[in-house]
Give the backbone structure.
Amino acid sequence: MTLPRTAHRRLATSMALAMALGVSSFAVAQAADDLKDKQKQVEREVKGAQRDLDESSADLQAATARLDAAKGQLVTAKTQLATARGKVAVAQERDAEMQAELAAAEAALVEAEAALTQGQADAEAQREKVATTVADMYSEGDPELIAFSSLIEAESTEELTRRDGVRDVIVGQEARAYDELKAAEVLLQVQEQQVSDARDDVAAKRQAAADHLTLMQTLEAEEQAAKDSVVSLVIERRDAQEGARKARARDAAKLRQHLAEQKKIEEMLKRRAARALARQRAHARSQSSGSSTGLLLKPVDGYVTSPFGYREHPIYHYWGLHDGVDFGGGCGTPLRAAAPGRVVSSYWSDVYGHRLIIDNGAMAGVGVATIYNHASSYNVGVGDQVQEGQVIGYEGSTGWSTGCHLHFTVMANGKAVDPMPWF
């Protein structure tokens, strides 16, 4: 893996400084290897991190959150629409089945009613037949008496036998007529029950069809609501994408402005460092920048949340230097001057929020300045002389920040270096 151009410059600066301080070539090579190892370690940490605290503006964070929410909701809405459409399709299939069942039940009812009408006509005809038969018999007298009289009047055995047969025919005809009437009435009762059952079946199927129609209307309303939700979320996602694009463009413009400001600050600090070194060259303390100098006080009581090093920006995807160390601690935690010095700049940055720059003069053979970012406020201003450990402000979350923290930068001869070895 090749080092970025900025890393090459840092390496060259470190080697030149080490040689100026009398460090051996072996130590220089070792420092170079350590730098490469440290860079690789930082790269691994960056790839595993979700985002830095100061990766983007609040506008872009809000726009991105809105876009993510719209995307997630759209997935859910599409699932709900597919489910609603499935329910409607099943309901439509069942509706067709129920309509067929209702039609069959109505046809069976028509058939049963026709059979009942015919049965009623047959029974009525049988009643008339019985009535006529009985009337004809009894108009001539009691059939039993007539038959008995004919038996008495018989003059021979042969005639007696014949007349007894006639009697049986007469009485049998009457009995058959009544049997046929009884059978017709029983059949009529069966047909009446069949019609009643068929009517009940039709009524039940009509009620079921009506209930199912209500269910289908509800499901179709749910499907339409799901369609409307999908359309609405598609529009919301489009608007959110446009909002995120505009916020990203605004951030990019601010970032370019910030880089231009940073360049000016670097040039100013280079000049101040050169002057400080010229004044104090004879008294400069000779110490290796590769080991802990112990020259700076930690500026805040807090743990490191993001180290110094090169990384890919998680939003804009450029490869650059995270030019300081982020310390947690909590909103309002006092910020202390890391070393004596003079405040040379205090201003608002869209990226870093409230910034404060202190020129700490010459240390370890280099001109040092310390920069404090994202503070809620500072209680010192340009031109003020500060002492080591003096409270100069309070931790905040201004600029591009997702939570209260201090982004602390150490500038050596106008270039950002890892602050950790200086503590």
